[in-house]
Specification:
Blueprint: H1 2-14, H2 35-47, H3 51-64, H4 69-81, H5 85-98, H6 103-115, H7 119-132, H8 137-149, E1 153-154, E2 160-169, E3 175-181, E4 183-186, H9 190-201, E5 205-208, E6 211-220, E7 226-236, E8 239-252, E9 258-267
Antiparallel strand pairs: 1-4, 2-3, 2-9, 4-8, 5-6, 6-9, 7-8
Helix pairs in contact: 1-2, 1-4, 2-3, 3-4, 4-5, 4-6, 5-6, 6-7, 7-8
């Protein structure tokens, strides 16, 4: 039954189904006299989506054993399900003080932090789980989804300066439009720093006067009949992660037109 409790929490939390679904009618709480029975009752209540009531029995366990890591971890998972993300993080921290590499506690904490919009902290913890379990596909997907949903921020007053020059030619190669912009955003994450370092290691960064300069020319394939936002992105686990974004004046394009963008990114 202990395995049932653990499996239920992980399945609920790792799939991000943050919901509070309850039985249609209130059922009487079952009895229990010891930790083993309380664990079994809690697992049964979880199976009925009676999360708040399951916590009652986890608390009974914790009254007897305040450092019961399974009960603490499962309670943290249920609190996340119920939307109590801050309390979930606090409980996970208590578990991780005792067992820093406990995967279930790390997972609960990463997801609760994501829901609290603490994107970078969540990313760091997902990355730690992957370092412990490199083949954990669910966590790889969760981290990629997190990055794809992390808001970008303006490059003004940041370490980055971005410039894009866009040229558009018709099917005969005649220049029909050109525009440029510095209205840019970037992903504020360790992920961006690591991406930049890989680009530097590959020899694609120029170092000049205490600045690092990256240039890239690539074709643009419009998804609509106009251009408005351009991205430098990376695909990860089926998700597109926008590392840099730049907004240009709206330009109408035809299917037969070809467009190119020249990126210049300076890191100070």
């Amino acid at each position: 039954m202990i395995k049932l409790v653990f499996s239920a929490i992980i399945c609920l939390v790792i799939l991000f189904s943050i919901q509070t679904a309850y039985a249609e009618e209130e059922l009487p709480l079952p009895d229990g006299k010891n930790i083993k029975e309380w664990e079994s009752i809690s697992a049964a209540l979880i199976a009925e989506n009676r999360f708040s009531e399951a916590i009652i029995y986890l608390d009974k366990i914790l009254e007897q054993e305040p450092n019961n890591l399974k009960a603490l971890t499962n309670k943290a998972g249920l609190l996340a399900q119920l939307g109590n993300f801050s309390k979930s993080v606090n409980l996970s921290n208590k578990v991780l003080e005792i067992d820093p590499d406990r995967i279930s506690a790390l997972t609960n904490k990463a997801i609760a932090l994501k829901m609290l919009k603490e994107y970078e902290e969540s990313f760091i913890i997902f990355s730690k789980i992957i370092s412990l379990e490199p083949n954990n596909k669910k966590i790889q997907n969760a981290r990629a989804e997190l990055l794809s949903g992390t808001p970008t921020i303006q490059t003004s007053n940041s370490k980055y300066e971005i410039h894009a020059l866009v040229t558009i030619r018709d099917e005969k190669g005649n220049l029909i439009a050109t525009t440029e912009s510095t209205n840019a955003r970037y992903l504020p994450s360790i992920f961006t720093e690591k991406w930049w370092q890989k680009v530097d290691d590959s020899g694609n960064i120029i170092h000049s006067e205490n600045k690092e300069i990256f240039t890239k020319i690539n074709p643009i394939i419009p998804e609509e009949d106009y251009l408005g936002m351009l991205t430098l992105e990376r695909s990860m686990s089926g998700y597109n992660i926008n590392i840099f974004e730049i907004f240009i004046p709206m330009i109408q394009v035809e299917e037969t037109d070809t467009a190119m963008v020249q990126w210049t990114i300076i890191k100070k």
